[in-house]
UniProtKB/TrEMBL annotation:
Thioesterase domain: residues covered: 60-134
Domain of life: Bacteria
Name assigned to this protein: PaaI family thioesterase
Alphabetical list of CDD domains matching this protein: PaaI_thioesterase
Length: 157
């Protein structure tokens, strides 16, 4: 008898994506941010997050550290979605601020651009609640010696 796919859990690439989502949620830094990672497929990521006034600079908009964190994470997880055995490390990240982020919901969207062996390149952008781009960035990510399977939080279903 053939298995019923509707009753089975995720397998292969889907399982890896779910495990990366769990890894993101388990990181201690996530206690500081109201955010949720979504990996619809390898090479694509979305981070849904809230811009909190606690992270504003003196002029009343999100500090650049929020832009960097969300853009780096979105690009990183888009790239790591294609690498199933090792944790990637950010080796460089270029960021462009295009609009101040105000309080409220936003989404950081990441996508893999190139590379699959040792170094991967991915882009990301932040879209605010009004549908406007607030920032964009490009990162390079290198395979580390850290096995994903050894990281607390990376739980395959």
């Amino acid at each position: 008898m053939l298995p019923d796919p509707s009753t089975e859990g995720p397998t292969g690439a889907q399982a890896h994506c779910r495990a990366l989502e769990a890894l993101y949620a388990a990181a201690p830094i996530q206690q500081q941010f109201k955010s949720r990672l979504e990996l619809p497929e390898p090479g694509v990521s979305r981070i849904h997050f809230e811009v909190d006034p606690a992270f504003f600079h003196a002029a009343g908009a999100a500090h650049g550290s929020v832009y960097f964190k969300m853009l780096d994470d979105a690009a990183f997880f888009a790239a790591n979605g294609l690498v199933t055995d090792r944790f990637l490390l950010t080796t460089a990240f270029n960021l462009l601020f295009t609009r101040p982020m105000r309080e409220g919901p936003a989404v950081a969207e990441g996508r893999w651009v190139s590379g699959k062996r040792r170094v991967l390149v991915a882009d990301a952008r932040i879209i605010d609640a009004e549908g406007e781009e607030c920032g964009r960035g490009t990162g390079t990510f290198m395979r580390s010696h850290i096995a994903l399977s050894g990281l607390e939080g990376y739980q395959l279903p």
